[in-house]
TrEMBL record:
Residues 25-107 form the Lipoyl-binding domain. It comes from Rothia endophytica. The glycine cleavage system is composed of four proteins: P, T, L and H. The modification N6-lipoyllysine is found at K66. It comes from the Bacteria. This is Glycine cleavage system H protein. The keyword Amino-acid biosynthesis does not apply. The gene is gcvH. Binds 1 lipoyl cofactor covalently. Its cofactor is (R)-lipoate.
Amino acid sequence: MSNIPAELKYTKEHEWVSALTADGTVRIGVTDHAQDALGDVVYVDLPEVGGTLEADATFGEIESTKSVSDLFAPINGEVVAVNEELEAAPETVNSDPYGAGWLIEVRPADAADLENLMSAADYEAETA
């Protein structure tokens, strides 16, 4: 059974989004379910800081020993940070998908968009 932290929001494409921080940003990563399905992650292609995300559009790719998968933006916003540690250690996505394996930090165009994402219970039902 996958680990599905209750404090996060989720997408049908298996991305997670943290709660809005005091500085108005969120972190985005892939779920435990996704990393397990992907297998050993060997490369992550992420957008540039300052880039714009459009909800449901691809913002990068994640490559594993099994396949290459698109990463989909859960919300509209501006990329304010990327996890540069993944360049040298992409396998961190497998070992710690909700912690050190985060992908990007985003300043949402509209914080209300976060309400359109799935709760942990909804995501669990989706992946059951």
